[in-house]
Every structure is written in structure tokens, then in C-alpha cells.
Hints:
By secondary structure, the protein is mainly beta. It is built from 7 helices and 31 strands. The protein has helices at 2-24, 125-129, 236-242, 324-333, 376-379, 451-464, 479-484; strands at residues 38-39, 48-49, 55-70, 84-100, 103-118, 133-135, 145-158, 161-166, 191-199, 204-211, 246-252, 258-264, 274-283, 286-298, 308-309, 320-321, 342-355, 364-373, 391-392, 402-403, 407-409, 416-418, 420-431, 436-448, 491-502, 508-521, 526-527, 534-535, 538-539, 542-543, 545-558. The strands form 6 sheets. Strands 3-4-5-7-8-9-10-13-14-17-18-23-24-25-26-31 form a 16-stranded antiparallel β-barrel. The longest helix has 23 residues, at 2-24. It is globular, with a radius of gyration of 31 Å.
Amino acid sequence: MVRIRDLLLGSAAGLAVAAAAQAADLPAGKAVPIEYVRVCTAYGAGFFTIPGTDTCIRLSGRARFEAGYFGSDSRTIPGGGDISGFIGLLRVNMDARTQTGYGTLRAFLRLDAGSRTGNNRIVSGTGNRSAASFPGLGQDQLGRMQNLIAVDKAFVQFAGMTAGRASSFFDFYAHDYEIIAASLGSNVPSTNLLAYTHTFGTGFSTTLSMEDPNFRKNPLYSDAVNATGLVPGQAGLNNVFTTAPTPIILGTNAAGNATAVAFIDAVQRSRLPDFVGSLRYDAPWGSVQLSAAVKDINTGGFIAGSAVSSLLPTPAGPSGPVAPEAAAALLAARGIEAGAQTAYGWAVQGGLKVNLPWIAPGDGLYLQGAYGEGANMYTGINRFTGSYISNGNVYAGNPFNQFLPDAVVDPLSGRLQRATSFTVVASYLHYWSPEWRSAFYGSYGEIGFGKRVRYNTGLANALVGAGPTVAPPSPLTNPLGYVLSPALRDSGQIVAGASLIWSPVKDLDIGIEGQYTRTAVASGRVADSDKGVFVAGVPTRTVSSEEVYQARFRVQRDF
């Protein structure tokens, strides 16, 4: 046994020596250097260097839960009866920066995704209309379930240039202190833009930005919803979305009511970019910004075969077509040569932020005001009621809708009449202690359309026959119904609220916010669509205002 063991050990030693000798004949190889992740301090906390590059990157994100209550007076209309809603949201951020001879080259990405359910103020109609989300389709889920995924940010910054999807350079306050984020004021979270910012080095900077127009278009008014069947071969709902027909009066009777109309395609095209300019000053005590925007408002042409007439003195609706040649002659006699046209809207805004550490560390006050014509998304007058809609309800089962179109095509002149609007907002953040803080905010806004264009819309409605809540009845044949119709009424809105937020540890917020909203017509009264009925085009109940309360609870973790 000993001899066998010695023999085996000797053989193993021989093999080892042979292997070592063989290896000595091979060329020596170098160990591959290992790149370690290194902390990058040049751009602040959280950045690290990508191995093998000189680029610093920071990864961050957010998880959020919200539950909300919102008043609803009715269970008989779409969305009616829903008073609760829930939201689960996620956010992922990536910030990459590289130092170059021209300064910092930066790319920033942000992806938001989530699920919303319940009340239509929790389930965002704006998200659906802007193609950022998709709804549930079940019998009990349609309008009550919504999944969303949004490329919130994706931009490059280099040598003063910002290019990509980013926050508009028009915006200032943008609901910085709020949970519900519905006070009146401009806040389009992201738009596609190309901008150049020049910094003067003394706290002043100025920016000129070319921005995507589609995120700032509120639809033009159309009173022909009930008349969409006039266009052959198109379903009514589809017709509203594809052409949004609005009438031009071809002729009137002795009383002044329309006897013939042709319909214009009132869907706005993407033609010119919006141009935004801002002047900003930043200092240790706070910030000031002045911004302005110019945008186009446009229509399509006349809808082929849509001209109709009636010989009845008080018709219930169109009764016969008008030949294209006859319609063209009537238009020419009125001096209207084409339906397609372009007008220009504009808005200006001023904002002030003051830091108030002498009250408590972290305290701040925002003041902001905006005015515009044909630019409702810039003034933010539609922030609470809804974006990308011509009119909307402030809650399910409300007495009347608030009208919010950027412009109205005057049925008599054929020209675009721009809506005028303004908003003001004040918001104060106060730290009761390092762990407890509250925000208090209030805002007010008004929108108006002009008496003449509303009157002329009523003259066209004598023939079109749209409902009294969609279009004003004829002021000649139904003066009381005209006065009490909510359609195209000038209105004002108050949105105010307060919050209490607890942050027991860094980057964790647990808070609740309550909000009050009141919408009222500028003068007089309007039909109560919720509790009244119409008799011969006249409402049996009227109101002058409507109000609603809501509350929202939030748990949010940032990292």
C-alpha cells in the first residue's frame, strides 16, 4: 500500500512539474483592470461616475399613494354617484451630466406610470384626452379605471440650449406647494420644445422657446353637436372629434334668425409652434419672472355638403340641403370667401416668489397673475374644470357647465372671436416644525366671450336646434331661454385650499389637503340642469353659482 501511495504522489508531482514547465513557455498575460463605481461630487449628492466614462449619473424615483373624496349630487349621469377615488403612481428619474469645453452636457429622463380609479376628478379626463393614458372598458370600470404611462421628461441641455420634452418656460408657480394641484394658473407639466437660455451672471436670465402647440390648444366652440348627422357618412360622435362642426349663417329671415347655414370644420390643426419668452431673476431672497406667449388659433374649411336651410319661421331643426353653388353665392354675398382661417392668441404672466426664513426655515410665498386672449391653457382658467374640452362640469350632477373654448367662430361674421381670461393665485408654505408643514392657497379667475358673438350664436341655433345647455336659444324667438342659457356665459371661479403634511423621516411625506371650489356666472342666473327641466325652451329652476368640496390623502416616498 505504501509503495502504491508513493507511486501516485510521485506521478502527481511529475505532472505538476511538467505543467509548470509548459506554462513557462507561454507568453505572460496582464490582469484586466477593474473599473469601480466612484462617487461624483461635482453635481451634488447622489451622482456617481459610470465605469469607463467621464459621465456622472444620478438615479432617483418616487412611489405615491392617494385616496380622495369629491362631492357628487347625482347617480343618474355618467360619473354620477362616484365620491371616492384612488391613485397609485411611480416615477423613475435619470440625470446624466458630462463636463465639456462648452460647459455641462446634460440629459434628463423621467418616466411616470400609475393606476387611477373612482371619481372622475381622480381619474383624469385630461390624461385620456392628451393620449397619456387609457381607460378600463368594463361595465363598472368604464370611466372609473385608468392606467397611464407618460414620458414626463426627456431633454438635452447644452451651452444654453434645452431640447426635448420639458416644462414650459412660460410656467412659474406651477402648483409647487399643492397636493391636488388644481388652483387656477398655468401648469403644463411637460411639452416638446427647443429653447435657448442666456444667463447674465447677475441673477438675471432670459429664454426664448419654441414650444409644441398641441399641448396648449383648448378646443374651439361648436354648437352643432345635435346636428352632426347632417354630414353624410359620419357617425355623430366621430363627427364631433373629426370636424367639430360649427355653423356660419348663409341667410336670415325678417326677424333676423338664420334660414340657412353651412358648417365649418372647427378642429384646430398643428400649424405653427407657440413662441414663449421669459425674463427671470433669481436671488437668495427669492425669484421674479415675466413671461409671454403667442400662439395660433385656426379652423379647417367648410364641410362639403353640410349647408342646410328651412322655410319654417321657428324651425325645430334643418329641413333641407342647400346646393353647393347656392351656398357659395350666399357666402359671397355676405363677404365670406373661405372657412379656413387663422387668428393669434397671446398671454402674459408675472410671478414672484419670496423666501421667508425669518418666519420659519423653508417658508415661502408665491404670487402670480396672468392675462390672455385665446390662450386659456396659458392663463390656466381651465385648470380645475378641465383641459382640452370646450365646456365641462365641475362635478358630476352639477347645475351647469362652465364654457372654456379658446375662441368662437362668429356665425354672422364668420370670424374667430377670442375668449379673454385672467387668473391670480397666492400660495404660502409654512413649517410648523422641521417635521410638520402646511400650505395655504387661493386663486381666482374669469373668462369672457363677448355679448355679440353669443347673440349671433343664438341666431344660428334657431335653425341648428342644439339644446339650450349646448347653445343659447334664439334671442329673438326665445329671449328668456336665451338669457338663462349657460352656453357661452362669462364666468368666474374661486379655488382655495389648505394642507397638513408630516415628514417623520427624510423624503417621506404623509399629508392631507382640503379644497373648496366655487364657479359662478358673471351676472344673472342660468338653468339648473341637475334639478330642473325645460318647458318650451325655458328652465323651471335657475342658479347663479355652484360649489364643491374635495379632500385628498397622500403618502409619498422620494429617493
